Amino acid sequence: QVQLVESGGGLVQTGDSLSLSCAASGRTFRTAAMGWFRQAPGKEREFVASISRSGGSTDYADSVKGRFTISRDYAKNTVYLQMNSLKPEDTAVYYCAATGYSEGGTYSSTNAYMYWGQGTQVTVSS
Prior knowledge:
Blueprint: E1 4-7, E2 10-13, E3 18-24, E4 34-39, E5 46-51, E6 58-60, E7 68-73, E8 78-83, E9 92-98, E10 115-116, E11 120-125
Parallel strand pairs: 2-11
Antiparallel strand pairs: 1-3, 3-8, 4-5, 4-9, 5-6, 7-8, 9-10, 9-11
């Protein structure tokens, strides 16, 4: 069993940066692909970024490519999402997610993930 806890959300202005963190409790972290998703009010949850179990591969939604960076720190059992050049349309609750055992690769579908955090709010004002 894996427990995930996100932190780092807040209120910022257009063009600002934020860094989100997701702390994982279990040893499964080392063999799981990780992902970030977001959900705005009245909309369905959407893919943001994913990183393979080794950290060697990453994938991003077109809407955030070039602005966001996903990374992981195995010593800290933590995955990060660095968000730059934030826009009002980035406003959402951001969720960290983990697959079960993964042989490799990245995943953009919510169906690929077994474990989810509680979410952290990111609000970008104009």
